[in-house]
Design a protein that fits this description.
alpha+beta, Aminopeptidase, 8-stranded mixed sheet, 4 helices, globular
């Protein structure tokens, strides 16, 4: 896939995640409070974050990646990450995001996600987007609602790295015509 992709929104720029963003990714990915309700976070070491970025770069090198990881930039400052997971025959995408806690509550996750939906609906003709969040993560649920996503269900089977036991998660989707 083309690593020259840049997605611009009103306030944000989304660019492929690279080692340039290792330190700033560690700031939010290794922060236990920032990543408390995430499945794969918080990261346990800088090496784990480095390996994650290397894996993301390897995906970008594929003609048809399974995952596209973007850095979310605000006036050039890296404030979070957003991911598109491609499912099936590339007609459906799953969004995931994390924003550094210093930038919570300002609409950046919704703006970045809307930029991703618009870009991938146009560039790859994706027609359906889904997103999940821990049922306790009301902020992410609000982001999904702001995107026009519809609540589908809450189900079990979620295991977050930083929480004990099985959790429940909410599923939202949006279908484009």
């Amino acid at each position: 896939m083309n690593t020259d992709i840049t997605i611009r929104t009103r306030r944000l720029t989304l660019v492929p995640l690279s080692m340039k963003y290792l330190n700033s990714t560690c700031e939010y990915a290794m922060n236990a409070e920032n990543a408390r309700l995430m499945v794969y976070l918080p990261a346990e070491s800088r090496k784990e974050v480095e390996d994650f970025i290397k894996s993301a770069q390897a995906q970008w090198a594929l003609a048809r990646p399974d995952i596209c990881e973007f850095a979310v930039l605000l006036e050039g400052k890296h404030i979070g990450g957003i991911t598109m997971y491609f499912e099936g025959d590339y007609t459906r995408g799953e969004l995931g995001w994390i924003i550094h806690r210093d930038y919570w509550g300002r609409g950046y996750a919704a703006e970045a996600a809307k930029g991703m939906i618009d870009y991938f609906a146009d560039a790859m003709k994706l027609k359906r987007f889904i997103a999940h969040c821990d049922e306790e993560n009301q902020a992410s649920a609000r982001v999904m609602e702001k995107l026009g996503m519809t609540y589908v269900e809450t189900h079990g089977g979620r295991f977050n790295r930083a929480t004990d036991g099985e959790r429940r998660e909410k599923l939202y989707e949006i279908k484009l015509d």
